[in-house]
Specification:
This protein is an alpha/beta fold. 42% of the residues lie in helices and 16% in strands. It is built from 14 helices and 13 strands. A seven-stranded parallel sheet has the order 3-2-1-4-5-6-7. Strand 9, helix 8 and strand 10 form a beta-alpha-beta unit. It is globular and about 60 Å long.
Length: 374
């Protein structure tokens, strides 16, 4: 079987990038599967995660991101030229590879992909929640246009894969074939945390979704009570300068760049906090749990509630109730026996995201769709 992945680039430290690399590596380890990936914006950027040699990756050199350096009118012309180039290049590669299944994400150019894929099954992975995906746009008219265009293209795809039951319910209003397959976890090769370090950890992009600034604001309610504890923040992104400024003026907050050794950082911490506005899955939550960390997270749509069992392996906090968040974080800081009990429950519950349980679900889907194609 030949599986073709399409994605913008594997150039940043991110959850989607890690998941795609891990899935491709797992699939490529099977004797009867050939894995290909075509990117549009990789350029000369190195891939931060280790990719197996038998995963075939090619960048088409479209560089869609460069169009935003131009003014509005020129951007329209440049975008048309880029889309035309992508359509031709993608069609050529599909003819050459002859894949049995094509996989893309909701962030890809689905309208172009459906034009050139012919009868080959196309699977769309939802790595953002449905409502956020279909309501993008700077104004109402643009949102309506983009929604219509996106849903028209989506109707020509064969399956939408959501990461949680909640997101799947949303997608079923717009597509006839929606299934749930959670993210797989990168194998944890470090010892579980003893949960004795006086260290809270936050991991993510510095953007409007992940809200590192909210984590720092919550920490301000906690640090004076526990001056020997620290908050370590790992990430980068568009809000980096603002986060650095907040960090410099807040006690016991330490800023770190993304690292390939994040599991070592989990195992040297005692609690993970998550402050996302929305979370299609919450990979860092599951990763931290696989290292034995209890988690405190806002109960945002939809990922945290799909991973955290309230009061068992962590705490789910009503959205934006920062004082309640600080109280639950303080409880875990104070009560080491509760922290360790929840940490063990977190470790046990993370097993359901192991690759050997998750990836056979993908294989079953690919097999089903490719048989229909044949």
């Amino acid at each position: 079987m030949k599986i073709l992945y399409l994605f913008r680039s594997l150039a940043v430290w991110g959850g989607i990038e890690r998941i795609l690399v891990d899935k491709m590596n797992w699939l490529a380890s099977k004797e009867d599967i050939d894995v290909y990936m075509l990117t549009t914006d990789q350029g000369d950027h190195p891939i931060p995660y280790q990719v197996c040699n038998n995963v075939h990756i090619e960048d088409l050199g479209i560089s869609f991101h460069r169009r935003y350096q131009f003014g509005y009118l020129k951007r329209i012309v440049i975008s048309y030229q880029m889309r035309h180039k992508y359509k031709k290049s993608l069609s050529d590669r599909i003819n050459r590879i002859q894949p049995d299944v094509i996989v893309c994400t909701t962030a890809d150019q689905i309208d172009i992909i459906t034009e050139v894929k012919r009868r080959i099954p196309l699977v769309v992975e939802s790595h953002s929640i449905c409502s956020r995906t279909i309501e993008q746009g700077e104004n109402a008219v643009l949102r309506i246009y983009r929604r219509f265009k996106f849903l028209k293209s989506l109707s020509k795809t064969d399956c939408v894969v959501a990461l949680t039951v909640g997101d799947a319910e949303e997608w079923r209003h717009f597509h006839h074939h929606v299934i749930v397959i959670p993210n797989m976890l990168h194998p944890c090769k470090v010892e579980s945390s003893p949960l004795t370090s006086k260290r809270v950890i936050w991991v993510g992009r510095f953007d409007y979704q992940k809200r590192a600034e909210v984590a720092i604001d919550i920490w301000k309610h906690v640090v004076n009570r526990y001056p020997d504890w620290s908050l370590d923040i790992y990430g980068e992104g568009e809000y980096e300068s603002e986060i650095a400024l907040m960090t410099s003026s807040t006690r016991n907050v330490f800023l770190h760049k993304p690292t390939s050794h994040i599991f070592d950082c989990y195992s040297n911490s005692s609690i993970l906090i998550s402050t996302s506005l929305f979370e299609p899955f919450g990979l860092v939550i599951a990763e931290a749990m696989s290292c034995g960390l209890p988690v405190v997270a806002f109960d945002c749509p939809y990922g945290p509630a799909a991973i955290i069992n309230e009061g068992v392996n962590g705490f789910l906090i009503p959205s934006d109730n920062m004082h309640y968040f600080a109280d639950k974080l303080s409880l875990l800081i104070e009560d080491s026996s509760l922290r360790k009990h929840m940490g063990q429950a977190a470790l046990d519950s993370s097993d359901r995201f192991n690759a050997d349980l998750v990836m056979p679900q993908w294989l079953a889907l690919f097999d089903e769709l490719s048989k229909k194609h044949r």
